[in-house]
Write a structure and sequence with these properties.
With 429 residues, the protein is of the alpha+beta class. It contains 13 helices and 18 strands. It comes from Actinomadura graeca.
């Protein structure tokens, strides 16, 4: 059972009483009815790739895994939708959609191992969300099993629908605290007709890199991804893979376009306008993929250095350079190594706090630096989490962002749907 007790964080798991590997909605209902009658807490889980402790077991709980519910029930090309079970791997749905000239847009970094159910539970984002939105923007309807075993269906298969409250939006991002998602109707989009083109630009200052992102988005361009990589991350990649990093480079901006409405030449123009030291566009699909690999190397390059606390804050795009500078100051003040990558197009930053291996959790200097980063994000008008969720790791900072009245509304919703507090206790709120 130990394999089903934890996610990708250092959060210590409890000892579950049992693990259920549900194969269909009826088995989820049976499990929830039993748990309700016995007053046993239930921790739902998908692929276990979460980064906030949201899928960690609690003592005496029933771990309810949806990983065996892997059917893609329907793909309806004419309606641009699919109906899937929660255990479907994100990338597998995208590949299946592309056989029909469509794509599933959300693409978290874990897309090859994360599940649709987990993505829905955390409202996951990814590189393409700057153009196509986060998981909630692709969720049309859900089938959800409530704490007492009742099955409700939200949303539908239509492009529009405003009957009743937006319960689909409520359950997406609720981290398994309100119900267990057993099926989802999701939006598919036309796949790009041409291979993407990637632009890489280097900058001598973070402010200039942030200005490039602001100019691109302010010009009305919609790249399919717009990423920023800071100096510390670039050095870690260079030490590992030898990317010939210019020592004067403070940041790299990577932008990709997958359609004629966002010409690569325009991306280059705005990077140069912002003061890029160097800017170039890929000339073929292979080169485009190679440039994007620099971004995908960020996490493994950090993991080579030690254990990593992977964080997730989001600020208004205009405050992105300032937020990166605040992260660098926190690293210097507390003597902590922090590598930062950012979805620059939507102001979402991922500081990776590196500490020595073999520890059960981050040492005090790392925790102090993380506290400072969270406080800075809220101070700059941002949020504690853009796509990873609250889980258990970020609960201590909820009051600072939500405030007591808003948090009280969250708790009333929780009490209405889960009066005995059995669903994923101690998580999210």
């Amino acid at each position: 059972m130990d394999a089903y007790t934890r996610d990708q964080t250092y959060a210590p798991p409890g000892a579950p009483a049992a693990v259920v590997l549900a194969r269909d909605t009826a088995e989820v209902v049976t499990a929830m009815v039993w748990a309700s009658e016995q007053r046993v807490p239930v921790v739902p889980r998908g692929g276990g790739t979460g980064l906030a402790g949201g899928a960690t077991a609690v003592d005496g709980c029933l771990v309810l895994s949806l990983a065996k519910m892997t059917a893609i029930r329907e793909i309806v090309p004419q309606d641009h939708l699919a109906v899937v079970e929660p255990g479907v791997i994100t990338a597998d749905l995208d590949r299946a959609a592309r056989e029909h000239g469509l794509m599933y847009a959300p693409d978290p970094s874990s897309h090859e191992i994360s599940t649709i159910g987990g993505n829905l539970a955390t409202n996951a984002g990814g590189l393409r969300c700057v153009k196509y939105g986060v998981t909630r923007d692709s969720a049309l309807g859900l089938e959800v099993v409530l704490a007492g075993g009742q099955v409700v269906r939200t949303g539908g298969r239509t492009v529009k629908g405003v009957t009743g409250y937006d319960l689909t939006g409520l359950f997406v991002g609720s981290e398994g605290t309100l119900g267990v998602i057993t099926s989802a109707t999701v939006r598919l989009r036309p796949a790009p007709a041409e291979p993407p083109s990637t632009v890489l630009a280097t900058f001598g200052t973070l402010a200039a890199a942030g200005r490039a992102a602001s100019l691109i988005m302010g010009a009305g361009l919609r790249p399919s991804l717009l990423e920023l990589i800071d100096r510390a991350t670039l050095r870690a990649i260079d030490e590992w893979r030898g990317i010939d990093l210019d020592t004067g480079t403070a940041a790299v901006v990577l932008a990709q376009t997958d359609g004629p409405e966002c010409p690569a030449g325009e991306l280059l123009r705005w990077c140069e306008e912002a003061g890029a030291d160097f800017a170039a566009a890929s000339t073929d699909e292979t080169e485009s993929a190679a440039l994007l690999d620099i971004r995908r190397l960020a996490y493994p390059a950090a993991e080579r250095l030690g254990n990593c606390l992977v964080e997730d804050v989001c600020v208004p795009r205009s405050r992105l350079p300032e937020m990166i500078e605040r992260i660098e100051r926190a690293a210097e003040r507390h003597g902590v190594r922090i590598l930062t990558v950012a979805h620059a197009g939507d102001g979402n930053l991922h500081p990776l706090f590196v500490f020595e291996r073999g520890r059960a959790g981050p040492p005090p200097p790392v925790q102090a630096a993380a506290d400072e980063v969270f406080s800075a994000a809220i101070e700059l008008g941002g949020t504690l989490t853009g796509e990873h969720g609250v889980g258990v790791l970020k609960r201590p900072w909820l009051d600072g962002e939500l405030g007591p009245d808003t948090l009280a509304v969250h708790r009333r919703i929780k009490e209405a749907l889960d009066p005995d507090g059995l669903l994923n206790p101690g998580k999210a709120i």
